[in-house]
Give the backbone structure.
Amino acid sequence: MRLLFLHQNFPGQYRHLAPYFAARPGFEVTGLGERKNVLRQQPRFPGVRVLGYTATPPDPAKLDPGTASLQRAIHLGRTVARGLTKLEKDGYRPDLIAAHIGWGEAIFIKDVFPDAKLLLYCEFFYRASGSDTGFDPEFPSRPGHAQRLRLMNAPLLMALEAADWGVAATRWQHAQFPPHYRSRISVQHDGIDTDVAKPDPAARFRFPDGSATLSRGEEIITYAARNLEPYRGFHIFMRAVPELLKRRPKARIVIVGGDDVSYSPRLPEGQTYRRRMLAELEGKIDWSRVHMLPRLAYPEYLSLLRVSSAHVYLTYPFIASWSMMEAMAAECLVIASRVPPVEEVITDGENGLLVDFFSPEGIAARVDEALRAGAAMDPIRRRARQSIVERYDLKRVCLPAQARLIEQLARGETPAPG
């Protein structure tokens, strides 16, 4: 059986699936991504043929500002279709193509390979209300935003119309799609490698500059995000820091993240959300106890989670970060924002603690409460890991389920929706 995994940042969400099938007899696996990304990441999976397409961006002068996102998606879809056509002319015929729904890559796949089953990774569908848009009054939507979202959804709808099936990682993500498409979208998480993300009582975390080493015996409050931005509650957490320092005089706070923007409104050139918050809180933070670190390599990041006394995770109603689940798998005491995507995973007082996203005082009070409780919080830590192992374990739960879905679809069977 021939499988093609398509993702502009290959391997993307197929990091585990592609090598899983390549290791099984009877499967021929190809990965396809944008050439510059493939070369940068240099994914090396035994048995996986990795190819790249060259995506030349459209001429900005020819783009209409109001429809630029749709034009870019169509342009990318055509670029991918040309690459697939070359493969088709060389005699390549995949049985199933798994592709990310975003960016436009999947729009014209069926026009090149009409007989191949097309499985879309349905990560997110934009909504003008009820999810991330309009959630934070500090960052209100700009005029015309609803129209822009409708245009951003257009390539997703084109891909959905052509696809045979879709898969969403969580029930909340599944629910963002229009009702008449949900019956053709399964819910299956990518999985957390709980053999790697696990507790270690002897863990130590050494600061990148070598200035200090932390251990589990200390009181350490952690916050981590790919980028320090409003979508992940960075501004709210920073406003909680002075009160945290006041309530917990022996605590050290470690904040990890980059200064790019993944999801939030972009700032003027030269500005970052980090700089904004530092200016707002000037003179209110004891920097001898607060440490702001850049993104960490994964092993170092796990070491930090393992020494954490309380891990704060904040997010808009948006895709819940895998990092939240990794923290739970490491038996962190997670204090998270009470929003639907988080509540799908965390039950307050059972496997974590929930707080009001918009309340810095409430966040500080809940962290203080948790740290005062000490060992009484250990059952919550253990249940946090147990819930991830039972529901989201990569090797024993999610990967086999994803593989069954692909094999079902490739055989012409109808998978279970929702």
Observations:
- The CA atoms of residues 338 and 354 lie 5 Å apart.
- The mean pLDDT is 97.
- The domain at 204-392 is CATH 3.40.50.2000 (Rossmann fold).
- DSSP finds 15 helices and 15 strands in the chain.
